[in-house]
Amino acid sequence: MVFPNRARVTAFRALSPRRSAFTLVELLVVIGIIALLISILLPSLGRARMEGQRVKCLSNLRQIGAAFMMYTAENQGSFPQHSNWGNCYGKAGTDTRYDKNPKTGFLGETGVVEERPLNKYIKAPEVFACPNDIGDTLQTNVVSCFESYGTSYLVQWSTAFAVKNVTGAGKGAATNAPMKVGQAKQTSSKIVTGDWNWHANRPMSKEATLWHNRNRTQRTFNMLFMDGHAEFYWFPSTYEQPPFSTNAAPVNVNGTFW
C-alpha cells in the first residue's frame, strides 16, 4: 500500500477553502445594529413624508390663489359669491351639507347643474385635495373633506370667528357680500382660505383637526393669503378666545387682519 506524502497532504489542506459562519452572538449583534438604524431612520422618514405632503398642500393653495386673482381680474376686483361654505371651488361632493341641491362642481359631473365659480380657472379636481385630509372635526361621518364636500379647503365665506369674509352670498346680504381687491388693510396677512378645519370652532383635542402637525397646543394650518402667498401659519392664542359670533368684528392682532 502506498501512503501519500504527509507534507503534500498538509499543503493540500492549507490551500482548500475553509467554510466560515456567523456565530449566534455575531448574528444577534448584526440584528441589533439593524434594529437601531431602523429606529433612528423611521422618525426622519416620517417627518420627511409629512413635510412633502405639506409642501404639496401649499402648492395646491398657491394655484387656488392664482385662480382667485384671475377671477377678480375678470369681475371688477370682486371675489366670488356662492351659496354656502363649501361650494366656491372643487368637484361635486357626496355630501350636500355645505353645498346646495342639485350639486355644484365641475360641469359634466353627474348631477352637476352649476359650476363652482373658481373651477373655470382650475380644471384639475386634485388641486382641491390636501394629501393629509382626514376629515371634518364637526362631522364624524366625514373621512375626507375632499370626497364629502369636493374640497379640502374652506374659504372664508362668512364673517365669523372675528374674521372678515372674503367670498360671500352676494345679493341681499349686505353683511356677507364678497370683498373687493383693495378692501383688506394688509393683503399679505388677510386670510382667504386654508385647510378645512382652520376655524376656531374646530377643537384642537380632535385628531381630525390636526392635518399637518400633532401639536395640540397651537392651531397651525396651511393657509392662503390675499396677496397669493401660502404658508404653514401659526394662529395667535387670541384666535381661540370667544365670542365665536357671526357678528363679531374683524380684529387686527400682531399685524394680522384676519
From TrEMBL:
Keywords: Membrane, Methylation, Transmembrane, Transmembrane helix
GO CC, alphabetical: type II protein secretion system complex
Keyword Methyltransferase among UniProt keywords: no
Keyword DNA-binding included in the entry's annotation: no
Segments crossing the lipid bilayer: 21-42
One GO process term, biological-process aspect: protein secretion by the type II secretion system
Name the UniProt record assigns to this protein: Prepilin-type N-terminal cleavage/methylation domain-containing protein
Organism of provenance: Humisphaera borealis
